[in-house]
Design brief:
Length: 370
C-alpha cells in the first residue's frame, strides 16, 4: 500500500515538473477564435445525376451525383462548418441533359433536374461553365430561375448594359462554430469565372449579346470590392483548369495565375476534368501536392461527372478582428475504385427526386432503338 502511495506521489511530482502538455493554450492567444471550415466542390457534372451510362445503357458506378451526394453528406457530418459549391458545366454533356432540352423541353415553372438536385443538397452557391451556354442564353436564364441558391460569374458582360451579365459575386453571411462551441458571424465572398473562349465555342448563341473579360482582370477588379464590403474570406469558383503556361488575355486554364491574386483564399478549379491534388500536376512549380497548394493557396479539382468530391479544409483564426486562413489541406474523395467498383451507397432520397427524368431518358433511348 505504502509503495502504491509513493508511486502515485512520484508520478504526480514527475507530472508537475514535466513540460506543459501539448494542448495548452499558447500565451497571448485565444483558442476559441479558431474555426475549422470545410469547403466542398462538385465540378463538371455534365448532367450526370445517375450512376448510369446512357450510351451503353448500363450502370456505371464511376459517375453520378446520386453517389457523390453520399460523400457530401459524409463530409458534412465530419465537419462543424461546411459550404458546398458547384463549379459549372452541370447541365449539358449526356443524353439526359439533351433529352430534357431538345426533346421534352423545360416547361415553365418546372425545375431542371440538375437544379432540383442542387436545391435538395442545399448548395451554398454555384457558378456556371462554358457548356451552360450551349443551349442559348434564354434557356440558361430560365433554367437558373429554378435554383434556390445564388449563382455567380464575374467575367461575362452584357453588351447592352456594359455590366456583368450575371451577379459577379455574392457575400454569404454565415455563422461558424469554433472549437469551443461558440458561434461567430463570418462573411464569405464567392466569385465565379469561366474561359473567355465561350465567344468562339458558342458564337452563334452569344455574339452581339455578351462579351467576356480576361479571368485574372475580372478577379483584380472585383476582389478588392468584395474586401471593401467586408469579405472575411474569398472563395473563387473558377471554371478553369490549372496550367503555368505564360498568361495571356485568353488563358483558358487560369487557376495558376488566380492563386497569385491577393485576397483570394481558396480556389475551386474545374473545366479540365482533372484531379487536383493529383499526379497530373507533379511538375507544376510552387505546388504542394500533399497539402493541395499552388503558390501557397489551397486549390481543389474534383474530376468530372460526379466521380469525386473536392474538399478543402481551412483552419481560420481571428487576427485583429479579421478571419485569416492559418492552415489548409485539399483532397478529393472518389465514389469508385480504379476498377469502377462503387465505394459509396446511392443517395436514395436524391434518386427519388430525379428518377422520373432518368427513366424518361432511358425510355426515349430505347424507343430510338439505339
Ligand atoms: Zn468547362
Amino acid at each position: 500500500m505504502r509503495k502504491t502511495i509513493f508511486l502515485i506521489l512520484a508520478l504526480l511530482l514527475f507530472w508537475q515538473s514535466s513540460p506543459a502538455p501539448s494542448f495548452a493554450v499558447e500565451s497571448g492567444t485565444n483558442t476559441s477564435e479558431t474555426v475549422q471550415l470545410r469547403i466542398l466542390e462538385t465540378t463538371d457534372l455534365h448532367a450526370s445525376l445517375v450512376n448510369y451510362d446512357y450510351y451503353q445503357t448500363k450502370v456505371d458506378n464511376r459517375i453520378g451525383l446520386i453517389k457523390t451526394a453520399t460523400l457530401i453528406k459524409q463530409a458534412r457530418k465530419e465537419a462543424e462548418n461546411s459550404l458546398l459549391f458547384d463549379n459549372g458545366d452541370h447541365l449539358k454533356g449526356n443524353p439526359l441533359g439533351e433529352y430534357l432540352v431538345r426533346v421534352r423541353g423545360l416547361h415553365k415553372g418546372k425545375i431542371h433536374p440538375v437544379y432540383r438536385a442542387f436545391n435538395y443538397l442545399h448548395y451554398d452557391a454555384v457558378t456556371i461553365g462554358n457548356h451552360e451556354f450551349n443551349y442559348g442564353l434564354s434557356f440558361i436564364k430560365s433554367a437558373l430561375k429554378g435554383l434556390k441558391m445564388p449563382y455567380v460569374n464575374a467575367n461575362v458582360y452584357s453588351i447592352k448594359t456594359q455590366k456583368p451579365y450575371f451577379k459577379p459575386y455574392v457575400m454569404l453571411k454565415r455563422k461558424v462554430v469554433d472549437e469551443s462551441g461558440t458561434a461567430h458571424p463570418i462573411k464569405i465572398g464567392v466569385i465565379g469565372f469561366m474561359p473567355t473562349q465561350i465567344m468562339k465555342w458558342d458564337k452563334a448563341n452569344l455574339e452581339g449579346k455578351v462579351i467576356t473579360k480576361p479571368i485574372v482582370d475580372s478577379a483584380k477588379e472585383f476582389v478588392p470590392q468584395m474586401k471593401a464590403q467586408g469579405a472575411d474570406i474569398i472563395i473563387a469558383l473558377a471554371h478553369t483548369g490549372i496550367s503555368n503556361a505564360p498568361y495571356h488575355q485568353d488563358t483558358e486554364h487560369a487557376v495558376f495565375y488566380l492563386t497569385k491574386i491577393p485576397g483570394i483564399d481558396a480556389i475551386l478549379a474545374g473545366h479540365a476534368h482533372s484531379i487536383f491534388p493529383g499526379p497530373t500536376y507533379n511538375h507544376l512549380p510552387n505546388t504542394d501536392l500533399e497539402l493541395g497548394l499552388i503558390n501557397g493557396k489551397p486549390v481543389v479539382m474534383a474530376g468530372s461527372f460526379g466521380s469525386r468530391l473536392g474538399i478543402i479544409d481551412l483552419k481560420l483564426k481571428k487576427v485583429a478582428g479579421k478571419w485569416r486562413v492559418l492552415q489548409s489541406s485539399s483532397t478529393t474523395w472518389a465514389i469508385a475504385d480504379e476498377n469502377g467498383n462503387s465505394l459509396v451507397k446511392t443517395d436514395k432520397a436524391l434518386y427519388k427526386r430525379i428518377k422520373g427524368d432518368h427513366q424518361e431518358t432511358v425510355e426515349f433511348i430505347k424507343k430510338l432503338g439505339l
